[in-house]
Target: Alpha-L-fucosidase
Amino acid sequence: MAWDRSSILVFATFALSLVNLSVAIAKTPCHFPAVFNFGDSNSDTGGLSAAFGQAPPPNGMSYFGHPAGRYCDGRLVIDFLAESLGLPYLSAFLDSLGTNFTHGANFATAGSTIRPQNTTLRQSGFSPISLNVQYYEFHDFHLRSQVLRKRGGVYETLLPKEEDFSNALYTFDIGQNDLTSGYFSNMTVDEVKAYVPDVLDQFQTIIKDISDIGGRYFWIHNTGPVGCLPYVMERIPVLAGQIDRYGCASPFNEVAQFFNQGLRNTVEQLRKDLPHAAITYVDVYSVKYSLISQGRKHGFNQTLRTCCGHGGKYNYNKKLGCGGKVHTHGKDVLVAAPCKDPSSHVNWDGVHFTEGANRYIFEHIVDGSFSDPPNPLNMACHRN
Model:
């Protein structure tokens, strides 16, 4: 059969429309019925508070109006993520009061590390609930939730369906404490860098373990610029020449970037090992550093100095943290009080970001601009 030019053009147009249709179908928005989160205080919505005592006032003041298990004046990035997906805020797995796990659970606890620590929380400030323990909790939750759900009644309304585990988004924000724990143990930056490969090997194992029981969609944050956090800069002095033009300690940020490159390589290997999984690597480091270095342009008047604290160059004192009181003349007096407008600060308490900063971070990562692959959050079920 002879083809004339018009026939070829019609056929080519039809073929192209089929290609576009297939791409559109492949890129339809994902439906995540649940989120299961693993991490540290950057995403803890009540885990450490349930186990070791509630995060005290004025935490929670800006949004919840009271302490809500978060080391922040309001919401965290994970809260904005849940909102964006149309899900309720995640209940902490360790919190037995008023919790609802229908749409996921949060296994993160403040102070957690990837690699287990050989110290107690009181000794070091780092949580005993390291990432492997969070995985054990999740594994147990996965099994027992389905046994309980079969009882019907209230259990069906408070626990996720079996199929939700394979359709859920698994989110991770952990690694910062693995670096700072070394610094606080008087290790040099080179000594900390030396154990990063082991930390990442353990992280990789957990991802594979979750995949083995049905996890398919992973959203992984890298670690932020720890050299810009007062609790690091106050405790570990560096030379004047090691401070960058924005006031951050370069040696610690360089190690964070070293960790992040290793994490990125780990994710690339995981994609080869788990070809069925969609794994998104999210560069929150760049967003956070941009916020700190250009904060005033984005409406933040204070980028390094904490909102809630007391004393020193950064309004931070490790012995008298946010909400801290001193006993004088027979009564407790609040000394480490919050600033009048937390939304004008990037840093809340010397360690954690304010709700305003968390909102900024989420708004800049949700569209995929800092992701690899560059898929927005609602497309994170797609592999590329």
Remarks:
- The two ends are 40 Å apart (CA to CA).
- Confidence is low (pLDDT under 50) at residues 8-25.
